[in-house]
Amino acid sequence: MLKLDNIEAGYGNTRILHGVSLEIPKRGLVALLGGNGTGKSTTLKAIMGLVGLQSGTVTVDGRDMAGIAPEARAGLGLSLVPQGKEAFGAMSVEDNLRMGAYHRRKDRAGIAIDLEAVYTRFPRLKERRRVAAGMLSGGERQMLSIGRSLMSRPSVLLLDEPSAALAPKIVEEIAEAILGLRELGLTLLLVEQNVGMALDIADRLYVIRGGRIAHETAVGDGIAMSELQEFYLGGHQDA
Amino acid sequence: MDLFLQYLANGIVVGSSYVLVAVGLTLIFGILGIVNFAHGEFYMLGGFAGIGLATVLGLPLIVSLLGVVAFAALLGFLAEQILNRQVKDKDPTNSIVSSFGLAVVLQNAALLVIGPQPMLLRTDLSMVPVEIGPVYLPLQRALIPVAMIVLVGALHLLLRYTWVGMSLRAMAQQPTVARMCGIRVSRVAIVTFMTGAVFAGVAGFLMSSVFMVHPLIGNMIVLKAFTVVILGGMGSVTGAAAAGLMLGIVESMTSAYLGNGLRDIVGFLMVVIVLLAWPQGIFGRKLERS
């Protein structure tokens, strides 16, 4: 369960988020849509604690995250799959995955089990386990990013634009992989610019614009793609 | 040919000390992004501490070595508090300027406390000859490359196969992702500084039987170490090891065949050429598909 209650955040004196609220029930998959510079990434950074909150609260599984350092949040079930498919480029695929389990590094048996589970989910990573992560293709690196997050045994997983800079066929593969994560009982927040992908897999959509939630709707409410795009592209004036 | 081999051996001995100093410098730069101009002072203080323990207190060499390690680790810990913890979050150039300041403070503190008189470590080992074919080295010099190989080998294993080492590499490659994995920046910074200081301090102790130790010796050694770091590729440990040995050998040959006056110039000449031709360093490489 992830809950943002009226959070305001920014850098220095510049405020980016002006009261963002959203709630994802356990096992829910919610998409946060918005263009560049609307506050999507800042929202994720605020959840992870990389950007300090000026007001409001972030709650993960009923626990207030206030005062908890970013590096301590991995141990509390919160994990981010970062934008740009960032990996430890000079380290092998397998070492990258192991790093995801850093906060429970004493649990050797558990790590071995989780490693096998990631390889079963992404067989491509098993083939490439000895390769340096920097040599992977974009799609493989996205799988690696997701796999690394899974190694932390998260309950809430945040995905920052997993479809960015990938070929349509690969995007489909990644979308399927994300759907597969629901079976693990994860609470998922998908931040995207790709409306089509979000409509395909999410059960609830939020549109963010100018650091505020401009629109909120359940998927399957007969929502029209054109209506959504109007919000998303900013054709609609703020209410 | 016999003389050539002797010069080669001398170069390897001096080069080994460059490796030990440069490895720490390249780690601190690669992991924390800090250019540490006070690194030469770890070397200088390691030399004085060793001479103090071995000559003044008359402790056995191995005990003195352990004492130098402990002392240098403490120095590294304190330097991290000053150069990283206090100033780094405000502006990255702060740590460069404050490391300059720390270097000056430590040099003058050494001048005040120990005095300007150069000192040399004299041990019984200097009487024990090691002869490999035509090459002759006193045992205490022959042990310097051995110590370097042991220390760099241990560091290599630590970085590759332990969680501490992997967290250091992760922090060097993707600091934000590393934090998201639960790695604490402050802990990595302390480990990095302590490792760097221990390597430099041990180098200072080992070399105190070859070159005289004095309070300003850190100035030259830190420039040599920067030369090595640039030649080897910023942040690369294997690059620093290879480039350090290379610089030691080239200097030894220059001094033997071209004249001793050119000895300290040749390294800087190499830096200029390398930066023009291979800005990544001779051994630096990019492992990232763009």
UniProtKB/TrEMBL annotation, chain A:
GO terms for biological process: L-amino acid transport. One of its GO terms (molecular function) is branched-chain amino acid transmembrane transporter activity. Pfam families: ABC_tran. InterPro entries: AAA+_ATPase, ABC_transporter-like_ATP-bd, ABC_transporter-like_CS, BCAA_Transport_ATP-bd_LivF, P-loop_NTPase. Keywords: Amino-acid transport, ATP-binding, Nucleotide-binding, Transport. It comes from the Bacteria. Residues 2-235 form the ABC transporter domain. Transmembrane segments: none annotated. Belongs to the ABC transporter superfamily. PANTHER family: HIGH-AFFINITY BRANCHED-CHAIN AMINO ACID TRANSPORT ATP-BINDING PROTEIN LIVF. This is Branched-chain amino acid transport system ATP-binding protein. It comes from Salipiger thiooxidans.
TrEMBL record, chain B:
It is a multi-pass membrane protein. Keywords: Amino-acid transport, Cell membrane, Membrane, Transmembrane, Transmembrane helix, Transport. It is found in: Cell membrane. GO terms for biological process: amino acid transport. The chain crosses the membrane at residues 12-35, 65-83, 95-115, 135-159, 188-213, 225-250, 262-283. One of its GO terms (cellular component) is plasma membrane. CDD domains: TM_PBP1_LivH_like. Belongs to the binding-protein-dependent transport system permease family. LivHM subfamily. PANTHER family: ABC TRANSPORTER PERMEASE PROTEIN (PTHR11795:SF452), BRANCHED-CHAIN AMINO ACID TRANSPORT SYSTEM PERMEASE PROTEIN LIVH (PTHR11795). This is Branched-chain amino acid transport system permease protein.
